[in-house]
Design a protein that fits this description.
Heat Shock Protein 90; Helix Hairpins; 12 helices; five-stranded antiparallel β-sheet; alpha+beta; Beta-Lactamase; 47% helix
């Protein structure tokens, strides 16, 4: 068989594809002849019908569709690749991606939680109004160099961030892509809070030591000078000096206790301690103090044992501190009651209740801070160091226990230790 030329091959392929159209056209021509139409008219009708159908069935040129991202690298894009978006969303620090006109293209979940949701395509100033951040972003866009500043948020709560802006290159090397920039926010609020606490601690400790030292120096100079031969004045001064040195000794002991507790705060004690005899021992040790201030300590203890895992010496320190404070600051009520609750249905709890003047609500959350005092003069007159409840908190943290404080002005205060 003779090979078909390209032209005849295309014609035969077209005829095979349009065979149904040709059959229909021949059927119509046969009907026209039967109806009496002359031959030339039938032929013309047949040709017109075939040409019209053949032309209408020509394949139309498909519009050119741009290739997708995997098929070709687009020179510019207004959205991030899914892999990039998923990675940024998994970060626990707030992150935003902006364009060269400072429009927000993406923000992760941490950014939405910290600053609220911003509409994609909106200018960065719609959400962040800090002049420092906006100036930094503007400088990064102009210079294409990273920058960072420290930024503080006052509302809804005080937060401090290190804000960093940097250019991002998503396009392959050598290609021209849209310039993108990333804003990241590193929260350093806790670091700042710890630094402030450390500074306050050093300042308070220095102040607490400076006061008795200045008193001692003054009395020594007086005894060496004007009161050199005044034995009655010397006796009085020596008594005050003894009290001041005792106060300094207690302060140093408390500071050392805090330091030791911090070193082993991660180690939970595993010794079984029965709180029933322990509370009795603490009450007996505080009887002279209670008698001096006119307070009676009443124990309400269950029958049998009430054992917890703990360090006996540290628990003695906890309950000595709580009962001593109740006696000193609640002496107006004349009684201090200690309740021990123990049973299989709930946790072991020890509650120390006084009938004193109570503590204003604004002071309660800060009672366990170092050197925090509700009334400075009253605390010093009662020979307090300002570290007792801080020590209690650290000991209970090591014992995996909680301190619950309830107080009402004019009705007294209760401290509950829940194991």
């Amino acid at each position: 068989m003779e090979e078909q030329t390209p032209w005849t091959g295309k014609l035969m392929a077209r005829i095979r594809r349009e065979i149904f159209v040709l059959v229909v056209a021949l059927a119509i021509a046969f009907i026209a002849v039967t109806a009496g139409m002359n031959g030339w008219g039938v032929l013309g009708l047949l040709v017109i019908m075939i040409l019209a159908v053949m032309c209408s069935s020509q394949p139309r040129a498909r519009p050119r569709v741009p290739l997708s991202v995997p098929e070709m690298e687009q020179p510019a894009t207004r959205s991030l690749l899914p892999e990039v978006s998923a990675t940024l969303s998994a970060l626990d620090i707030p992150v935003m991606v902006i364009s060269s006109d400072a429009s927000v293209l993406f923000q992760n979940r941490a950014a939405e939680k910290a600053f609220g949701e911003v509409a994609i395509g909106a200018h960065i100033s719609a959400r962040l109004r800090s002049p420092g951040i906006l100036d930094m972003v503007r400088e990064t866009i102009v210079t294409n160099a990273p920058n960072q500043i420290e930024h503080s948020e006052r509302l809804p709560s005080e937060r401090v961030y290190i804000v960093r802006s940097s250019p991002v290159e998503l396009a392959p090397e050598g290609s021209i892509g849209e310039r993108l920039f990333m804003l990241s926010f590193r929260d350093i609020s806790e670091v700042r809070r710890i630094d402030r606490m450390r500074s306050d601690f050093v300042a308070n400790a220095s102040h607490e030591l400076r006061t008795p030292l200045a008193s001692l120096r003054g009395f020594i100079e007086t005894i060496q000078g004007p009161a050199k031969n005044d034995f009655k004045a010397q006796e009085r001064f020596l008594g005050i000096m003894f009290d001041q040195t005792t106060r300094m000794s207690r302060l140093v002991d408390d500071l050392l206790s805090l330091s030791r507790l911090e070193l082993k705060s991660h180690i939970a004690p595993d010794e079984k301690v029965d709180l029933v005899p322990l509370l009795g021992h603490v009450r007996d040790a505080l009887l002279p103090l209670a008698k001096d201030v006119g307070v009676e300590i009443l124990l309400h203890l269950p029958e049998g044992k009430a054992e917890v895992l703990g360090d006996r010496d540290e628990l003695v320190q906890v309950f000595e501190n709580l009962m001593e404070n109740a006696c000193k600051y609640g002496q107006e009520g004349k009684t201090v009651e200690v309740f021990l609750k123990s049973g299989p249905a709930g946790p072991v709890e020890v509650t120390v209740v006084d009938q004193g003047p109570g503590i204003p609500a604004e002071h309660v959350p800060r009672l366990t801070e170092r050197f925090y005092r509700v009334n400075i003069e009253d605390s010093r007159s009662k020979k307090g160091t300002g570290l007792g409840l801080a020590i209690v908190k650290h000991i209970l943290t090591r014992h995996r226990a909680r301190l619950i404080v309830k107080s009402e002005v004019g009705k007294g205060t209760s401290f509950t230790v829940r194991f």
